Amino acid sequence: MANIFPVRIRFEKAGKMRFLSHHELMRLFERAVRRSGIPVRMTEGFNPHPVLSFPTALGIGIESLDEVMELELSTWVAPNQLREKLSAQLPEGIRIRSAEPFLRKDRSFVDFVEYEVDVPGQTGGIEGRKSAFLERKEHRVVRDLGDRRKEVDVRPYVMDIEHEPDRVFLRIRVTDAGTARPEEVLEALGIEIRDDVRVRKTYTELRMR
Description:
The protein has helices at 22-36, 79-87, 126-135, 182-188; strands spanning 5-13, 52-53, 63-73, 94-101, 108-118, 140-144, 149-153, 158-164, 167-175, 178-179, 198-208. By secondary structure, it is α+β, with helices and mostly antiparallel strands.
């Protein structure tokens, strides 16, 4: 088997780029990788494309300071060189933070994520609502999936909640069975999802399978 060099990239997605869908983001990186000249491995078949993956998908409209992408190179490239080449092909709002090699057998999965949410004027009395939520064994929400609606118990996914004036911090577990959406937790805390509510992902914790 030919040499394969996996690389894990952490990047930011901000500004107008937060409105990209998961599919659009993948296409953006595929084009950037091709233009950069990075020796990325390609899939086989009639329509080959770069071998890259995202351990988790980010909701549309949410900024992220810590997203993760993994790709495979056919030839080793120094991490700083790879970061420079790829960064030169990315639009404003997408910024590469780091590029690190890893062993191919150490495929990652997301264990939990952390969010910081600006909620102007909505943290009054939140301590009591937070305590009540965390004491519950379950909290069911109805999730709109487009062609159908599904009831989901989001309580098992919420690891912790903190707050300060006009800001809420969430730590949410991600599993193969699912996760909680930040807006679902905010609404459970009595926070109205208004235009001035700004959600940003600040951290992604990875574990190895």
